[in-house]
Amino acid sequence: MTPGRPGGQGVATPGSTALTRPGLRGREAELERLRALVGSVRDGAGGAVALLLGEPGIGKTALLRETVAIARAHGYAVSHGHADELHELAPLASLASGLLHGDPPLLSRTDFADLAGHHDQRVWLVERLAQLIEERSTRAPVLIAVDDVQWADPLSRFALSVMPARLLSSPVLWLLTSRNDPQLHGRGPATTTLTLRPLSGTALAELARDVLGGDVPEQVAQHLDGAGGNPFLASELLTGIAASGTAGTEPPQRLVLGVRERLAALRPDTLHLLRIGSVLGRAFTLADAAALCGRPASGLGAELDEAVGAALLHDEGERLRFRHDLLRQAVYADLAPSVRRALHREAASRLVAAGRSSTEAVPHLMKSAEPGDQEAIRLLGTAATDVLASLPDLAADLAVRALELVPPHTPAVFDVGERAVVALTRAGRYTEARRTGDALLARQPPLEVFARLQSVLGDTLWHLDDVHELTHRATAALAAVTDPAIRARLTARLALARSRGRDLGAARETGERALAEAERSGDRQARVLALWGLGEIALNAGDCAAAVEHHTALSVFDTAFLAEEAVARIHSDDFDTVRSMLRRAGEGPLRPAMLIWAQGTLNMGLARLDDADADFVTAERLEADLRVPGNLVNIRVNRGLLALLRGDREAAREHLDIVRATVADRPNTGNHATHQYFEAAVADAGGDHAAAAERIRSAQRDHSFFRWRLLRPQAVQAVRIALRAGDRALAEDLAAQATEHAARNPAVPTAQGTAVHAAALVHADHGLLERAVRVLRTGPRPLPLAEACADHGRALLTAGSTAAVFALTEAYDLYASAGADFEADRVRADLERATTRSARRGGGPRPRPGRGWDALTASERKVAGLVAAGHTNRSAAAALLVSPHTVNTHLSSIFRKLSVHSRVHLARIVLAQGDTATAADA
């Protein structure tokens, strides 16, 4: 059998029994490392990633195939797929090429069809795919092998970046080959990277002996030098020598090493078939090739037999495949550039005529379309629309390419350009989107087109935080527009821009006008924008009831905004409804990062600090996976404030460093205020009260303290900082804001209790402190109640009242239950002054160690117990009523604290602790 054929052995020659899989000579060390990885994953060491790098023909595929064979021999379930240069637009095609095949397939076609139906929700899709692989790995270790990752479609690349981290604890080995580093920047297990170098002279001589038998003539050895240590090229040369019995007098050109001679010996029709095939890609169907040849498929039998017999093609049944991509490249290189371009264009047309999807035709168009090609412009636009939700960056590239093909002075340029602006904005390429839109506007389009372009650019400017320019442009466009739907959208954009301004009354009027216009025009997008704007305006104004009303209407109209409704209800203290909403959302494909942010905000309100921190870590990870870290400042500020509650100033400073860097990169007013308050909290914890008060004043640079929804729960602490710094005017101002906020929200216990508590601190009024405690007991938030109880208890202690013990005990128990160790310790010190029962309190909470079983949080112990009992991430999440993403975050933390790498090792530790049953039943 000739070298390189799938599953094949080396070429045997007379008198020799030595056989070799091509490419393995000289690769013994790499193969041994791969064999060790297969064994370690099988034996419970956790997931692993191996990446084989090197030039074409260097032996990557041979090593991959050998590792696949070794894994199968070790009982692995195997997915062996490959990426194709011309199939990069088909979502998940590279992974599916292996997952849907095998004996049995790793993934059923029913499961894959379910996944494909949600290809526009990348995070949900990858999580569901990981669940299916995880479930399969409970029965046998799994190998996911993907060849030629440099050509993987974007959705497969995203999955390969994310899933190794998601399946870190499962026995899953990822084996990838690529010509260069594919830069899959995930946070999974450490990658074993094997860069394949050219074979040594010794290895080449061994390969020659395997193929030719006996000693290698000097002339052959000289010819092998021309292979440059590339095993495939060397094998091609040796195959030619073995077939002809002579090495010839001159070595063939290095590029093909005998391939040209093989092609020259073929009949013209066979050569034409191969050339057509090289245009269609490394793998292609006979029907597609026949269509381009202009002949029936049944009439190409002789040509196909000759191509297979010449070891150029391999017949896989469903498709034909060049035996190696170097062979395809050699055939493709023989085509004149003009011929290649014409064949690619014809291939696109025939694929469309045959009813194939635009994603199959577009790669050919990208190589062949010329300006003015209307069919190419249309198909590129269709493909961009098809992939916009799941692969916005690719959609942007396609839309921009379509725009490049439009003659600049034709009216179509504005429609195509508008799609490009939308796609670029969705891809997060805001500066490019603005530049593209402004270039279109510079062409002085008709007034209606001008207004429409300004409407789509409104989204771009919103993401660029340029609300002043957004206001200016929307106002100008409204003076020109006559289309009712575009008018409604522009008015809604204007309302959103004004939600960031000082006059929220005018913003509300604009939002209400936008909603009325949207209802009259029947435009869905305008209605969504108007409701969103009204909800934002209400939240910024501190009108919790109105915020809930508008965000509820919005989420009913568009369920993608469920997280916004949840956050609005959290501000209204409606925790029970939020819990029910988040449970109903479950594992649905609805913006999981925002839903988990809402879950974290809820857990923070409930004083479940460990769970809140895990939720925020998860939300940040999901945003990073999507490369849209829009909430990073808020996430890190919350995590920093949690660290201060625990007394971990070092962690708080680490979070602050990230906030500083992010704000420098994205300096909007909200980020500024949030950042300044966090600076104040850190400075106050370090004893620099004057600097802390100055930071509070800076937080109010653009708007009042209570304008910022993230800061409202910190109002009492801000008053305390002002008083410590001796700035009574600032303290009174903050307390007055709290009172105004309470007046706007008479049905929100936290708002009422916070206002009373702030006033009590400013006026040193013990009666108001007692009242604040009573009010806050009617609400759902333990930490504000603990603060009020602690201040009340200290005031009573100063007055010499024995009632101080009861107030301080309640505060201590609330802080201790929350895991707010630093605050609990402070209250315990006061309590020990107030009572002689200090021995009972002396064993109070202490910061958890960083490593070992005692380092685990209560939630982490529950997850550890469930996993040890055999649960998958999905079933553990269902048992704990949390997201699988959050379970994965807990597992990552568990593994780090326990220094383990797999579920097997974790189960042993849990068993030794005797916590399995307890945790599993929790």
Could you explain the architecture of this structure?
The protein is mostly helical. Helix content is 65%, strand content 4%. It has 47 helices and eight strands. The protein has a five-stranded parallel sheet, sandwiched between helices. The chain has a three-stranded antiparallel sheet with strand order 6-8-7. α43 packs across α45 (884-898). The longest helix is centred in the middle third of the chain and has 18 residues, at 504-521. The two termini are 60 Å apart. Mean pLDDT is 86; it is low at 1-20, 248-257, 837-843 and 916-922.
| Biggest sheet, spatial arrangement of strands | 2-3-4-1-5
Distance between the termini: 60 Å
- The number of E-state strands comes to 8
Look at the structure and give the mean pLDDT.
86
Decide which structural class fits the backbone.
mainly alpha
User: Which segments are poorly predicted (pLDDT under 50) over 5 or more consecutive residues?
Assistant: 1-20, 248-257, 837-843, 916-922
CA radius of gyration: 33 Å
Approximate shape: globular
How much of the sequence is in beta strands?
under 5%
Question: What is the count of helical runs?
Answer: 47
For the sheet with most strands, the description reads: 5 strands, parallel
Q: Bin the helical content.
A: 55-70%
Condensed summary:
65% of the residues lie in helices and 4% in strands. The protein has 47 helices and eight strands.
